[in-house]
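User: We ran a pulldown and think these components assemble together. Before we commit to crystallization trials, I'd like a predicted model of the whole complex to look at. Sequences follow.
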Amino acid sequence: MRLNTTVNGEARQVDDVWEGESLLYVLRERMGLPGSKNACEQGECGSCTVYLDGVTVCACLVAAGQAEGRDVRTIEGLAGLAGGTDLDPIQQAFIDAGAVQCGFCTPGLIVAAHELLARRPDPQVAEIREALAGNLCRCTGYQQILEAVQAAARARQAGPA
Amino acid sequence: MEFLRPASWPEALAAKAEQPSAAPLAGGTDLMVELNFDRRRPEALLDLNSIGELAGWATDGDQLVLGATLPYARVIVELGDRLPGLAMAARTIGSPQIRNRASIGGNLGSASPAGDCHPVLLALNATVEVASARGSRLIGVDEFYLGPKRSALAPDELIRAVRIPAGTGPCQFAKVGTRNAMVIAVCSFAIALHPAAGSVRTGIGSAAPTPVRAADAESFLAGELASGGQWESRGELDPTVAARFGELVARAAAPIDDVRGTARYRRHALAVLARRTLTWAWQEYRTCA
Ligand SMILES: Cc1cc2nc3c(=O)[nH]c(=O)nc-3n(C[C@H](O)[C@H](O)[C@H](O)COP(=O)(O)OP(=O)(O)OC[C@H]3O[C@@H](n4cnc5c(N)ncnc54)[C@H](O)[C@@H]3O)c2cc1C
Ligand code: FES
Ligand code: FES
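Assistant: Here's a predicted model for the assembly, 450 residues in total across the polymer chains.
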């Protein structure tokens, strides 16, 4: 089937999409957007987290056809959104805090954390843990990730440098 | 495979009548996993997400009517005050990303004995509104679950909504799992007190081939509360009554040993959950006078 969807602000059309495939597969294999990761394909790890009409979802559990006419935003589309510097504050904070080791979980965590900060500019640690409960990281032990989210919250409140 | 995207409820019913093997698709959090792992290859997917009315909720007399595709995230935010027990169960489901998509209709459609809505729907005496091109009918939740992942839904029927009597009394839910997120219940339990009717209803999850009520525990407790004049006095609950209630709940379960836990553990945990949730619900009843 043919799929029309807006991805990172750009209208995209792809053909020959199999009806049973996921939005994640379309993004990675048909649209050249491999930032969203495929680790479990069953909603358990969160590494495929994207925005669908402004709501965070596991792209591996969204059927491609369910994205028809909808607005998708992936990790590739976060930089520059906040204006100012190239990277979004949460992306910069992950780098600065050493919250990235192998990096496989990073795109999903960043999208989930981005959504949290948009909703709760100054989250408590418990709120951060709750918001990121669906994102698994096998490397960092999460401490640097929590620190990165807190640092990003501070950076966002201070405004663009 | 076909991808069907009906724009209205009548169109969805017509599509399902024409192709009963088409799999309804709501949040996809059960169905897409089956597709991704090649466990299921339906001839068609029937996406219900373009039907606006299914994604909302409304009041109808003294009932709350929750559309089949209403996601848990909205149950928590929009119905947390009116359906606290259901919101409690919804908060334990999956992760934020899952709760943004997963729906009550999908939980009922899957009819897994471990589905977290079921104990609450049993305790609240909900009704499942289903329809086909032949017409619509109401299925009492007591009659809905027929076996593991089997329900009273006919092949050409779709779930339209769940109807829940609102504001009947305190309702509590508790679940045992290995962490606070992303866990299928080892076992779960819900209790609802219905003071106006002088009755108690329960629901047990993940400890029998289907979600079940604990009928003996319900009548025991209702009898104790009535004979002691407790509904009126709102007096303290006798701990031995709570303990006995827990035992009777454990006895109503028919658990098995599996990777998540043993039958023995499940029975034990259910007795504890039942006693605790009763204590919370009764405390709520006493203080909400
Ligand atoms: C990571 C993860 C964690 C999870 N954690 C939990 C948990 O903690 N507790 C829990 O209970 N569940 C959990 N689940 C399971 C799942 O999220 C729930 O069962 C959810 O309610 C399914 O809803 P859905 O809208 O995603 O259903 P879908 O996957 O879209 O559909 C599920 C089934 O119901 C059918 N169906 C859907 N809508 C209708 C309708 N209107 N009429 C008739 N049939 C219909 C579908 O054909 C399919 O067979 C989890 C799933 C994942 C992936
Ligand atoms: S790949 Fe989607 S949640 Fe793991
Ligand atoms: S950095 Fe390796 S999984 Fe998180």
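The CA atoms of residues 250 and 267 of chain B lie 5 Å apart. That may be worth checking against your pulldown data before setting up trials.

User: Thanks, that helps.
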